[in-house]
Design brief:
This protein is α/β, with parallel strands linked by helices. It has helices at 16-29, 37-51, 69-75, 113-117, 134-142, 147-161, 164-170, 214-224, 255-262, 273-281, 284-288, 292-295; strands at 4-7, 58-62, 79-84, 100-104, 180-184, 197-203, 225-237, 243-245, 250-252, 269-270, 313-320.
Length: 322
């Protein structure tokens, strides 16, 4: 496999087998995906299949958070080092299915605005903000202006309280699943030795790093994978220039920037933005799979879930360690 930069086309959704795996683990975990994450994950899984990576191999999932990719990889038999700067606890619906260990340091003194934006503790019962009591909660639920949001919230809550897919999965055989290690660290200072992994993947996380630190993050990514191993990174592509999207606290990158940072020549870049955007705009399946949360807000990369207003489109980067 060779170095490559390519925009992620909606045609990736035609891979029904991988889409089924994504849906299964989302339902088990009780989560939903970002609007383009299906494309990102399918692209990464296809590259892994092309690579022929053996079960038992070690994969770093950089910026994994509580994303579903790490669980899909572990279910495939890979040992996953789940790297993130956030403080995480083992998710409720991963228990009795996956073996998860925690490692790393407490990152004293390190700050990044995205750390507060993605406060996983609010979904896990610690360090969360107080709700204001039962009466305030009831008032919010009965507010007619929030009706659609409340229906969405209550529906998600009911699914989590009665998660049949999780119950059924716990009855299965998980002996061949890989182990997951929650490792706390930053992209610029990964607490691992050189050549520690057979592959590094990253799903729509790179853009949330500090802009000036991004080139050095790529150097650090390369350090922790073995010779002839790959980086498989998805991030956000802009049409013509780098720009920062404040609501999601993420950067969008031009072809020229990605080419320079990853040292990938023009001949290995497929970046027809208008054509790929048109395919995304016309994808009925992408519209059908759109999480309701996007339709309820303008403060995201897809205001009110309208594909024609997408602020960016996903891009995949393959980088080989020579």
């Amino acid at each position: 496999m060779q170095d490559k930069i390519e925009l992620l086309d909606a045609g990736l959704l035609n891979d029904k087998e991988k889409l089924k795996a994504i849906d299964h683990w989302l339902r088990v975990m009780g989560w939903s995906n970002g609007w383009h994450y299906d494309l990102d994950i399918i692209w990464i899984l296809r590259k892994i299949d092309e690579l022929g990576l053996k079960k038992g191999s070690t994969i770093i999932d950089a910026g994994a958070g509580l994303g579903v990719t790490q669980f899909i990889l572990a279910a495939r038999g890979y040992n996953v080092i789940s790297l993130d700067f956030a403080d995480r606890r083992v998710p409720k619906y991963s228990k009795n299915i996956f073996t998860i260990e925690q490692a790393g340091n407490d990152l004293i003194g390190y700050t990044n605005e995205y750390m507060e934006f993605m406060d996983y503790s609010r979904n896990q019962g610690h360090k969360g903000k107080k709700s204001g009591g039962f009466l305030q909660l009831l008032k919010k639920l009965l507010d007619p202006k929030r009706l659609r949001l409340n229906i969405y919230t209550v529906n998600n809550l009911l699914k989590k309280l009665l998660n049949i897919r999780y119950i059924l999965e716990t009855m299965g055989n998980h002996e061949e699943f890989g182990k997951i290690t929650f490792l706390r660290g930053t992209f610029n200072n990964i607490p691992l030795g050189d050549n520690a992994a057979d592959l590094l993947v990253s799903v729509s996380a790179f853009e949330h790093n500090t802009y000036d630190d991004m080139p050095s993050s790529i150097v650090e990514f390369m350090r922790v994978v073995k010779k002839n191993s790959l980086l498989l990174i998805t991030t956000s592509a802009s049409k013509d220039k780098d720009w920062y999207f404040k609501p999601s606290k993420g950067w969008n990158f031009s072809k020229e920037t990605l080419s320079a940072w990853f040292s990938i020549s023009e001949s290995n870049i497929v970046f027809s933005y208008p054509e790929v955007f048109k395919g995304i705009l016309g994808s009925n399946l992408l519209k059908k799979r759109m999480p309701l949360s996007y339709k309820l807000s303008a403060e995201n990369g897809l205001p009110y879930g309208r594909l024609n207003d997408a602020q960016y489109i996903p891009v995949g980067i393959v980088k080989v360690k020579k």
